[in-house]
Sequence to fold (263 residues):
Amino acid sequence: MSAADVETQSQQESSNGTSKFDVPEIELIIKASTIDGRRKGACLFCQEYFMDLYLLAELKTISLKVTTVDMQKPPPDFRTNFEATHPPILIDNGLAILENEKIERHIMKNIPGGYNLFVQDKDVATLIENLYGKLKLMLVKKDDAKNNALLTHLKKINDHLANRNTRFLTGDTMCCFDCELMPRLQHIRVAGKYFVDFEIPTHLTALWRYMYHMYQLDAFTQSCPADQDIINHYKLQQSLKMKKHEELETPTFTTSIPIDISE
Fold:
């Protein structure tokens, strides 16, 4: 297992002399890259909880440690402790939480500040559910009908953002829904372009503005997998092998915006 390249202010001695030991240390174990086995992998739930916890670490309510595990060659101590369980795994004061729903519940109910992340908004919850399913169908079916289904869904999200006129899904402060949506948008952007030449239309300006703001945040950029890892994630699902030159590529991260954004 290796520590991911994440460091937040809460992990350091703060200027007023407060020690990191004054806040609970939370460890999040996430899947490593399927290319090099060390950097962050392209697991959506891993990134979602990474973002949740990173936001809390920025608020200095916790100290966050993120560890990557190569699930193609899991180390003996991981297998001893967790058997066949796959990340994400959250460890809080020696207690390991292994299932996604339980991890969410634990962040909301047991981790300082977590309750504030979990905004109750049924409209937004309904709006963003099943988006990932439409991406997977598009990548498998590769036809216009599946492309159009994804486009229609993205337009609904765009219209919601335009009508609310807020920086994020429920307001001007990030919440759990943003940590869920943005990793999925990144997969749509990177995998959609690579496999079926799908691009998010530039006329969805509210959606692009939203993505622009997300790209400015450490919570997203520190947790985001490389483009190559996102692509290989879906290659493995389709039983495709990554070419040797792709394995050796320097990791790239698509965070550019194709339209001008006025603040």
Observations:
- Confidence is low (pLDDT under 50) at residues 7-18.
- The domain at 119-262 is CATH 1.20.1050.10 (Glutathione S-transferase Yfyf (Class Pi); Chain A, domain 2).
- The chain has two domains: 23-118, 119-262.
